[in-house]
Amino acid sequence: LFVSLADNARAGIVSFSLIGDVTFADEENFFGLQAGDTITASGEYDDSLYNGVGLAEVPFGEGTGNSLKIQLGEILLEAFQDVDFLDGFFPSITFFNGQVADTNFEMVAGENDSPVDFTSRQSFLAGFFDTDGDDDESFGANNASSIVAGDWRVVAVPEPSSVAALTLMTAGILFGAVRRRRNTA
User: Fold this and answer.
1) What DSSP string describes 18-69?
2) Residues with Cβ < 8 Å from 132, sequence gap 6 or more?
3) What is the radius of gyration, based on Cα positions, of the chain?
4) Which terminus of the chain has a smaller tally of CB atoms within 10 A, N or C?
5) What is the strand order of the sheet 117-120 is part of?
6) Residue 79, pLDDT above cutoff 70
7) How far apart are CA 32 and CA 116, in angstroms?
8) Whole-model pTM?
9) Distances from the Cα of 97 to the Cαs of 50, 53, 55, 113, in angstroms?
10) Residue 119: pLDDT over 90
């Protein structure tokens, strides 16, 4: 866990997205998914406590300002539905040197309003938090009669400063084009 006591100012809200590739799905399952479909885990977090070096865990719990939603076919799961949420152990994403290293989400049907069981303990970096030595922890979901499983992949999302720079650059190019057009007319 990374903690910084230096500056409490928000460095920026960072959006993230993980795409899960469904590799197995029972026929006519509760989720409306088939092998080859995708699921998403997305949200936002405040990156002011992490400088991109070393290990950092981003929790998605009360008072953090961070958000997490998992779209599992026709089912939407949120951070507060994690089995340990009310005990103060929040779902999380762990970063190592600026890269997503691990996910830790667990929902249990009937607890915290979760309609299904869902587990994600994925290692994105070889050997990182790998529980059984095969570097392929993934996600799995089930209800009483159907199972869906697959693997996560990270989707790059630009940082807020990159988005701002691109917006200013685009505005400058458009302004220059309009100005040249007026001068030639």
Assistant:
1) EEEEEEEE-TT-TT---TT-EEEEEEEEE-TT--SSSEEEEE-STTS--EEE
2) none
3) 20
4) C
5) 55-59, 92-96, 99-107, 117-120, 139-142, 147-155, 13-25, 38-46, 67-72, 75-78
6) yes
7) 13
8) 0.68
9) 10, 4, 7, 35
10) no
Place of tokens 């190592």: 96
Amino acid at 90: F
CA atoms within 13 A on the CB side of 59: 14
Pull the structure tokens for residue 79: 């951070």
Look at residue 163 and tell me whether its pLDDT is greater than 60: no
- In this prediction, residue 156 has a pLDDT band, given cuts at 50, 70 and 90, of low
